[in-house]
C-alpha cells in the first residue's frame, strides 16, 4: 500500500470557518506543507480562472509536491449552483462549473471533487427526482472526465448536508448501476463517523471504488485531535490496497500550523 499524505488549502473567503487547514497565502502553505513532509495539496478555489494553472504547477513542483484534487464547492458557496436544483438553468450552470473544474484539475492530473455541488432534495424536487438529476449529471461528467483523462471524485455527505447519498455503499451503487468508469468515491471520515455503522467495514465494502480519503477526526479537527480510532481504518485501507491520498480536510484549530503538524504526525503513526 502506498497511501500518500495531503493537506487542504482554501482560497474561498465565503468558506471561512470551514474545514480547510490553510487559508490565504497559498504559496506559503505549499512551502510549509513540503517542509512538514506532506506529499500533496488539495486546492479549494473560487473557480477555474482564479489561479493560473501554470503558476500552480510551478510552485507545487518546486516544493516537490503534487496537486491531489481540486474542490468544486465554490460553485455552491459563491454562485448557489448545484446539480439537483429545481431550476434547469441552475443545474446546467452547476454542471458547466464542474466541467471547467475537471479541466482545471486535469492540468495537474488531479480529480475534481463533487461534494456540496450534488445538492439535496427540496419541496420542488422530491428525493427520487433529485437522485435522477444527480445520476444524469454524473453520467455526463464521467464522460467529460474520461475525455480529460482524469478521475472524478464523488463524496457522500452527512445528513445535515445532503439527503442523496450519505453512505459509501449508496455511492458505490450509483457507480455500479451507471457503469461509471471515472468516478471514484471520496471517503470523508468526518461524514462517515456520523453516518456509517462501521467506518472500517464501509471502507472494506466500497473497496476499489474508493479514490480519495478526507483524513480528519470525529470533531472535524486534525486527525488525532478527536476520538476516532484510526487503527481499524488503516487496516481496512490496507486490505483494499488503497493507494490514493489521505487528505487533511480539517478545521485550522488551534492554528493552521498546529493542525498540519498534528495531521502529519497522526498520518505517520497510523500509516507509517
Ligand atoms: C467537502 O469535502 C465536504 O466534506 C463537505 O462537508 C463540504 O460541504
Ligand atoms: Mn470532505
Which features would summarize this protein structure in a list?
alpha/beta, 272 residues, 9 strands, single chain, eight-stranded parallel β-barrel, binds L-Erythrulose, 15% strand
What does this structure look like?
The chain has ten helices and nine strands. The protein is 43% helix and 15% strand. An eight-stranded parallel barrel has the order 1-3-4-5-6-7-8-9, surrounded by seven helices. β8, α9 and β9 form a beta-alpha-beta unit.
Number of strands: 9
- Distinct ligands: L-Erythrulose, manganese (II) ion
Taking strands numbered 1, 2, ... along the chain, how are they ordered across the largest sheet?
A: 1-3-4-5-6-7-8-9
By secondary-structure content and strand pairing, the structural class works out as alpha/beta
Q: What shape does the CA trace take?
A: globular
Largest sheet: 8 strands, parallel, barrel
Radius of gyration: 17 Å
> What is the overall pLDDT average?
98
Low-confidence stretches: none
Amino acid at each position: 500500500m502506498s497511501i500518500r499524505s495531503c493537506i487542504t488549502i482554501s482560497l474561498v473567503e465565503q468558506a471561512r470557518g470551514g474545514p480547510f487547514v490553510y487559508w490565504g497565502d497559498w504559496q506559503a502553505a505549499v512551502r510549509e506543507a513540503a517542509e512538514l513532509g506532506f506529499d500533496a495539496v488539495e486546492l479549494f478555489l473560487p473557480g477555474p480562472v482564479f489561479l493560473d494553472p501554470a503558476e500552480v504547477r510551478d510552485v507545487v513542483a518546486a516544493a516537490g509536491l503534487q496537486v491531489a484534487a481540486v474542490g468544486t464547492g465554490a460553485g455552491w458557496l459563491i454562485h448557489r449552483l448545484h446539480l439537483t436544483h429545481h431550476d434547469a438553468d441552475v443545474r446546467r450552470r452547476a454542471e458547466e462549473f464542474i466541467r471547467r473544474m475537471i479541466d482545471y484539475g486535469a492540468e495537474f492530473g488531479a480529480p475534481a471533487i463533487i461534494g456540496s455541488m450534488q445538492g439535496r432534495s427540496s419541496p420542488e424536487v422530491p428525493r427520487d427526482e433529485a437522485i435522477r438529476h444527480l445520476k444524469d449529471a454524473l453520467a455526463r461528467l464521467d464522460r467529460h472526465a474520461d475525455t480529460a483523462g482524469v478521475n472524478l471524485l464523488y463524496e457522500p455527505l452527512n445528513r445535515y448536508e445532503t439527503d442523496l447519498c450519505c453512505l459509501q455503499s449508496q455511492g458505490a451503487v450509483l457507480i455500479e448501476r451507471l457503469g461509471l468508469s471515472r468516478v471514484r468515491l471520496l471517503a470523508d471520515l468526518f461524514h462517515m463517523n456520523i453516518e456509517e455503522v462501521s467506518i472500517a467495514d464501509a471502507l472494506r465494502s466500497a473497496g476499489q471504488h474508493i479514490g480519495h480519503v478526507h483524513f480528519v477526526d470525529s470533531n472535524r479537527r486534525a486527525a488525532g485531535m478527536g476520538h476516532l480510532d484510526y487503527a481499524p481504518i488503516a487496516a481496512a485501507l490496507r486490505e483494499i490496497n488503497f493507494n490514493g491520498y489521505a487528505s487533511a480536510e480539517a478545521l485550522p484549530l488551534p492554528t493552521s500550523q498546529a493542525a498540519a503538524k498534528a495531521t502529519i504526525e497522526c498520518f505517520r503513526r497510523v500509516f507509517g
